Amino acid sequence: MAFITNAWYVACWAAQVKPGEMFHRTLLNQQVVFYRKQNGEAVALQDRCPHRFIPLHLGNLRGDRIECGYHGLQFDCSGKCVKNPHGDGKIPAAAKVRSYPVNEKHGMLWIWMGEGVGDPTQIPDYSVLEPESGYRTSTGGYIHINANYELMAENLLDLSHITYLHDGLLGSPEQVGADQEVKEEGGHIICNRWMPNVSVPGIFDMLYKRDGRHVDMWTNMRWIPPSSFILDSGVHAPGGQRENKGWYFGVHILTPETERTTHYHFAAALPSGTAMTTEEAARYAELRRFAFEEQDKPMLDAQQAALGEANFWDMKPVLLTVDAGPVRMRRALERMLVAERQGTATTG
Question: Is the pLDDT of residue 26 over 90?
Answer without folding.
Answer: yes
